[in-house]
Design brief:
With 197 residues, the chain is mainly alpha-helical. It has a domain of 115 residues: Up-down Bundle (RNA Binding Protein, Prp18, Chain A). The protein contains eight helices and no strands. Helix 4 packs antiparallel against helix 5.
């Protein structure tokens, strides 16, 4: 026989929710959360300078410095050092003689030769040639004076190969000069012309 309901308890009262069991003091503790690994640092790229255009930095860095200004004006011959003076004293009279006498079909070659020689004289006056180049040019001029045009041609070729940085822009004019002097010497000339060439 069931016991009678307790006084005051309503059969329609809601049933209390079940409470969670108390924690077990002997249970192992859960593992700590894994430590967060920071991302690797990003390389700092310096910003380009203001006004710089992309792709020009390397080309600007590799650009050669501008040529130094000449100490003396073009056409001045008063500062050619004594060791280089034979170049001027021998070759200048040659081109002065040839230029007004060249046939019309050789005018351009003669003008090119005069331009190259004037550049050589200007550079000698400002002492911008290396000593080795000056020494070879002296030998070339002396060979022209002695009518050893084969020797002058060999020195010309040596300058073109071994002193190209200083001689390349001058070599055509010097080559024309050697050829014109050789042709003039071989041709039948008057005595006055033979004395010069």
């Amino acid at each position: 026989m069931a016991p009678p309901p307790q006084a005051g308890a309503s059969p329609y009262a809601p049933i209390a929710a079940a409470q969670p069991p108390p924690p077990n003091p002997y249970a192992s503790a859960p593992p700590p959360p894994a430590a967060a690994v920071p991302p690797p640092p990003r390389a700092q790229v310096p910003p380009p300078p203001q006004g710089a255009r992309p792709g020009l930095a390397q080309s600007q860095a590799a650009a050669p410095p501008p040529p130094a200004a000449s100490k003396y004006p073009a056409g001045d011959r008063s500062h050619i050092p004594p060791n280089a003076m034979p170049i001027y004293e021998i070759l200048n009279p040659k081109i002065q003689f040839l230029e007004p006498r060249a046939p019309e079909k050789f005018k351009k070659q003669t003008q090119r030769s005069a331009s190259s020689l004037n550049e050589i004289f200007d550079r000698l006056n400002n002492e911008t040639f290396k000593p080795e180049t000056v020494s070879k040019l002296v030998g070339l001029a002396q060979a022209v004076e002695a009518r050893r045009y084969d020797v002058a041609t060999k020195i010309h070729s040596d300058l073109l190969v071994n002193n190209n940085d200083e001689y390349s822009s001058l070599q055509i004019g010097v080559k024309y000069l050697i050829q014109m002097c050789s042709a003039t010497w071989r041709a039948e000339e008057t005595p006055s012309q033979s004395q010069i060439l």
